[in-house]
Amino acid sequence: MRFQRTLTDNAVVDILESKVSDAKAGKKYGISRQSVQQIRRGNTYANVRPEIPRRSNQSCRKCEHWRKGYCSFGFPDPIEEGPQAARDCSLYAVISS
Length: 97
Known about the structure:
Strand order of the largest sheet: 1-2
Helix content: 25-40%
Number of strands: 2
Number of helices: 4
Order of helices and strands: HHHEEH
Shape: elongated
Radius of gyration: 16 Å
Distance between the termini: 37 Å
Structural class: mainly alpha
């Protein structure tokens, strides 16, 4: 069994409100980048200050309008906004299998 570090509520809030990368936040608190990612997505510590928005799991790359590295509508600009811009896009539609 692996040791799992327990974070204080204040540390979780700091991670959620911080604008630093997942890797930098992880280094600050002695946890992995993936652990920070899980906190920011609300997969762990979801009970700590639930009113603080969590990161969306949506990605432009999962949208049916994503073609050859770009949004076919030109919004949002994934080069400037990053692949997580889908959370703000009203045209986002998941690729159907």
